[in-house]
Amino acid sequence: MVIIIDCGSVSVPDIVREVRRFRSKMMMVGLQEFEADQMPDHDALIISGTNMNFTDGEFEALREKFAFLMTSDMPTLGIGGGMQIIGQSYRAQIYKGVCERDYTTMTRHTDHAILSHFSYQFDMKTNHCEGITLPAGFQKVASSRNYEVEAIAHHFRPIYGVMFNPELSGTLGTAIFKNFFNLANSYIQNPMLR
């Protein structure tokens, strides 16, 4: 089962649509109701975008709620503000930047499987005005003209994040979800990876 943490993004129904392409069982939990130690058995976690500005200090109230990410082996995908939550859990810095609210060209920096079959440059729908520094323990997977870090992958945990909106990016966006669930399945089925 996939748990989707709804952090207030208007595109959560689009995330649900994309998840249904690959998984039949899912559960949606609101940000305020989410408690990591009280979740039913699940094999993947998606943290949606938010309607918050983390540069206004709004993450501090969430730090304890997401502290589990520091030791989690649960396959996790953070989207937009969800990536910021992951990053801040690993002490990345959030900063105000240029507002991106359209398709933006991304540049891939590694052959990581979260971008499997993506070309060197690709366009994704974006909707953010904040950037993030590279969190400790992560590699930069993609950047854009305005933001040095647009996609990340943890070096050894199955934790990934994208600042762009794959749920709104058509076929390439669907590929992000497909790659994430392929990575999650590999991790779950291979105890040596844990």
CATH architecture: 3-Layer(aba) Sandwich
The CATH class: Alpha Beta
Q: How many strands, what sense, and barrel or not for the largest sheet?
A: 9 strands, mixed
State the end-to-end CA separation: 19 Å
**Multimeric state:** single chain
Assess the beta-strand content as a share of residues. Answer: 25-35%
CATH H level: which superfamily?
Class I glutamine amidotransferase (GATase) domain
- Unreliable residue stretches: none
CATH topology: Rossmann fold
Average pLDDT over all residues: 94
| Envelope shape | globular
Please tell me the total number of domains. 1
- The radius of gyration is 15 Å
Helical residue percent band? 10-25%
Strand arrangement across the biggest beta sheet: 2-1-3-4-11-10-9-6-7
Q: Structural class, from secondary structure content?
A: alpha/beta
Provide the succession of SSEs.
EHEEEHEEEEEEEH
| Count of distinct strands | 11
- Helical element count? 3
List keywords for this structure.
194 residues, alpha/beta, Rossmann fold, nine-stranded mixed sheet, two-stranded antiparallel sheet, 3 helices, 11 strands, 31% strand, globular
